[in-house]
UniProtKB/TrEMBL annotation:
Residues 79-91 have a biased composition (Basic and acidic residues). Residues 63-77 have a biased composition (Gly residues). This is DNA primase/polymerase bifunctional N-terminal domain-containing protein. Residues 95-261 form the DNA primase/polymerase bifunctional N-terminal domain. It comes from Streptomyces filamentosus (Streptomyces roseosporus). It holds the Pfam family Prim-Pol. Residues 45-105 are annotated as: Disordered.
Length: 287
């Protein structure tokens, strides 16, 4: 009896999490005008092995056309215990936006699953676009609902740049340190996305020329710092990848309209300093 009740609770939780992803994707796209698309997601290893064997057979029979179908649309790759900062107080961005996690940050889930893309050595499992490719990102409500009706477990991918937010990401431990430093300086922040390995501070859109000038004027930018601008992407909550769950380290205000975002110049010095003083001098790139 306990096992039956436990299974029912798990099923209800999964249904709620799936609905939460579609609701979140619609909010991002329609209310905030952020172009999104579904990420590749995860699957069980047995299913991946079967799919790869079938794909190999199709490639043998059809030549390069089979491989081309796998890569249709072309997906780009971007390739201490510091706990996540609590930002959400419930309401609209409550537990359902964390996929059930109430800690206000990222937890490790998805163990035992592999990326649903055809690359067996994928270094960012489940955490990138594939089919559709990044250029398909849209703010059209009907398209967004159709995608997540067909694939309710799909991660939410934000196409950064243009009219959408950009972001600066860094490994999780210096990320938490950087947030404390920015708070101490009184810097106003927008949403901050957290995964078990990396945190990303959303910033106002910038172009490559502006970013180039900023980096030229900044000494010693660590290689672990990553800039998500035009042509890039970022996963949004509540998504699940091979490294764990995507949540908010600093959540948008409940019931807010399109979130306010700081300029990249306001945060980059603190992020550089936090990364530079991390173990290894910030040279280690954590996915």
């Amino acid at each position: 009896m306990r096992e039956i009740l436990g299974r029912r609770r798990r099923l209800r939780f999964r249904r709620k999490a799936r609905t939460a992803r579609q609701d979140a994707a619609v909010t991002f796209a329609v209310e905030w005008d952020w172009p999104v698309l579904p990420g590749v997601g995860l699957e069980e290893p047995a299913r991946a092995g079967s799919r790869m064997r079938q794909g190999a057979g199709r490639t043998e029979r059809t030549g390069s056309g089979g491989a081309a179908r796998w890569f249709g649309g072309g997906a780009g790759r971007s390739a201490g215990d510091d706990r996540p900062v609590r930002g959400d107080r419930g309401g609209r961005f409550g537990a359902e936006w964390f996929g059930g996690d109430r800690s206000g940050g990222a937890t490790r889930t998805g163990e035992g699953q592999v990326c649903a893309c055809p690359d067996p050595g994928c270094v960012v499992p489940g955490a990138h676009p594939f089919d559709p490719g990044l250029l398909a990102a849209t703010t059209d409500e009907r398209m967004v609902r159709w995608w997540w009706t067909r694939r309710p477990d799909a991660p939410i991918v934000l196409a950064t740049g243009g009219r959408a937010p950009c972001a600066v990401s860094l490994p999780a431990v210096p990320g938490a340190r950087a947030l404390r430093a920015l708070d101490a300086m009184g810097v106003r922040l927008g949403p901050v996305v957290a995964t078990p390995t990396r945190w990303a501070i959303l910033v106002a859109p910038y172009d490559l020329e502006r970013l180039g000038e900023l980096l030229y004027a900044t000494d010693g930018v660590p290689s672990s710092l990553r800039f998500h601008g035009e042509g890039g992407y970022l996963l949004l909550p509540p998504s699940t990848t091979g490294t764990g769950q995507v949540g908010w380290a600093r959540a948008p205000l409940a019931g807010s309209a399109r979130p306010w975002l700081p300029d990249v110049e306001a945060v980059v010095d603190a992020l550089v300093e936090a990364s530079r003083t991390a173990p290894g001098g910030g040279s280690r790139l954590a996915y």
